[in-house]
Amino acid sequence: MADLKKLTIDDKIRIITGLDTWHTVGVPAADVKSILMSDGPHGLRLQVNEDGQTGDNLGFNGSAPATALPTGSALASTWNRELLSKTGDVIGREAAAHHVNVVLGPAVNIKRSPLGGRNFEYYAEDPYLVGELATAYINGLQAHHVGASIKHFALNNQETRRMNVNVHVDERTMHEIYLAGFKKAITTAKPWTVMTAYNRVNGEYASNSHVLLDILHKDWGYQGAVISDWTAVDDIIASLKAGLNIEMPGNQAVTPAIVKRALAEGTLTEAQLDAAIVPILRLVEKAELQPKTPVPIDLAQQAQAAYEIASETSVLLKNEDAVLPIDKDESVAFIGAMLDQPRFQGGGSSHINAKYLTLIKPTLATTFNEAKSQFLTGYHMDDTPDEQLIAEAVAAAKVHRKVVVFAGLPDKYESEGFDRKDLDLPSQQNRLISAVSAVNDHVIVVLNNGAPVTMPWVDDVAAIIEAYLPGQAIGQVIPDILTGKINPSGKLAETFPQKLSDTPSYLNFPGSINDVYYGEGLYVGYRYYDAKAIPPLFAFGHGLSYTTFAYHDLTVTPTNDCLQITATVQNTGHVAGKESVQFYVSDDSNQVSCPPKELKQFAKVALQPGEQTTVQVEIPFTELAHYDIDAHAWQYTGGPQTVIMAASATDLRLRATVDLPVVAAPALPVNIHTTIGQLLANEATKAIGMQIINGLAKAFGMDPTSDEGSSAGFDQATVLAMLNDLPIRALASFSAGAINEHTIQAWIDQANQQITPK
Ligand code: BGC
């Protein structure tokens, strides 16, 4: 690692802000090279050319030709860790070939509302799935000595007022839902950098949040460099003190002077500045491992990997009477302006200049029997009503056996920078689909969008493929799914609601003025639909195949530190296929209140017709822990648990119940607010709890050892239940003075001695 001592004070105050939009400051005299960063999560978006810098960070300007991979929603739908690793690998190769040191991804914020403008870029509504997939992506990328920048840490779940909105979130929800995915990826895959978010969290900007940055550094032991999102720094001195290392983009005209002044005034010490610089030096050290003469990149070969990844991203939502796949000789009408103007990627900082973009229409034209197929426009991309286009589509739908409508959200409907206002497709697309379904029973809808849409015609069409934004391979994978060359194996990583008002954050999204309250707490995504028994349009984890799968023989065996799970999955249909099996756990112990079930494992298997395989997975007990807000720590408590093997969050197939030994939570210090129930619940303080009950019983003239109960007819169990939530402070007045303050204090002291004996 470069020697901190070789840096002058001027070097130090320059290095903590970038050099420009994409570089950090290099100090050759101290062997500190300049680091080059580049977006983005779904392909390299390099905006720096031979002559130096070009471009912006919002995707307005062009970038170097690259491979466009499926976006986050699509990648997560693969439920395939290997493909996420391959995604990182593809991007890592290109980054290394261009001497890029850090790629600004993966983007892993939880999808709190389906309206979120960046949902196309984010993975899922579930933190376990997010953490697993992000880990795989980072490992694939960093194998090329290219660092990841996991983003946006944290709670960047909306675009509306993203640069100053203050997220009000409770501590348990923050840890269990919004930080758990980051925690898994950061602690296991060790991304070189973490990018802080724009928003505020409980009053502090994420870039100077002691709460967030202490969790990152102190609780998770993160040693890498923390960089800001572009222009996210509000107060550089506060940020440096809280644990930020590099402000991006470079603000050389302003920041060094501020830092210099702070040093002079003593509001920042040189030791604090040094502490901020050490992780930058570690980052440079890692970047030095990248080969100086990179392997030249073969974009044609990369395109093959893009196809492989995209071949598992589409989700077959519905397929009545096996209307899909379509025989190449069938008579088909292909309808939709999106055939000519495909939406294959997202807008904003992840926008890629795809070198090998494939188009759906030419592939369909060469694949299907020309004499029996027809192409029609159906609607205008800008949603202008056009009766003529609909009439032509209806006429074609009457004569062809099958109709495939290509629909979705044009670019202007969803992007970084703004949220959607509703969940609807453009109105003319909905009209078209309803009109053709009225005259044809074999309508297939192919959707290209980054996030859930409503489907008023869901019962009228025969099949629906949610193809999301599959990247440059769009023109190969969609025709291949239609013909059955690819058997779809994607499953939703987010719930599709029936209507916007069903969504968990409906009453609190995007908040008002500067604040948003995460009032739904832990109940995000399927956790909410489960708890409220609201049937979704399509559930989290749902996705069909051209074959069928049966699940058998679930066994769950507890060991000292995990649940060992085995189960059989069989392909019961006639074609080869892949199935993602999901393992949810329902905590039946009633020790803490929690959602009805939570995803804790998954596995994807590939099976030939008739073939079966044994799935073997483990769920470490640490995955079953809950965040305890009194202890400010994760606590695993054991007790009865049900493991549910499922094909989706609503297609639950097999269950196995285990009774794990109860692990008492470490006792917390007892004070006047501690309740009698809390004393009784803990082995160390149980005896004091009983002593109090006896004292109270005596004060009321009852015999605590008898079942007879009180003179008013309350039995002992009822009396105990009534006293359960009584705080110790209330004992004096509750007993009308029979128990005095001295006795109470003596009990508290005695209880605390039991917890931490001297
Ligand atoms: C985005 C980041 C991106 C950065 C650089 C910001 O506006 O929020 O995700 O990496 O720009 O382009």
UniProtKB/TrEMBL annotation:
InterPro entries: Cellulose_deg_GH3, Fn3-like, GH, Glyco_hydro_3_C, Glyco_hydro_3_C_sf, Glyco_hydro_3_N, Glyco_hydro_3_N_sf, Ig-like_fold
This enzyme's EC code(s): 3.2.1.21
Record has Hydrolase as a keyword: yes
Taxonomic placement: Bacteria, Bacillati, Bacillota, Bacilli, Lactobacillales
Gene name of the encoded protein: bglB
Originating species: Periweissella ghanensis
Protein name, entry field: Thermostable beta-glucosidase B
Pfam families xrefs: Fn3-like, Glyco_hydro_3, Glyco_hydro_3_C
UniProt keyword list: Glycosidase, Hydrolase
Boundaries of every Fibronectin type III-like domain copy: 579-649
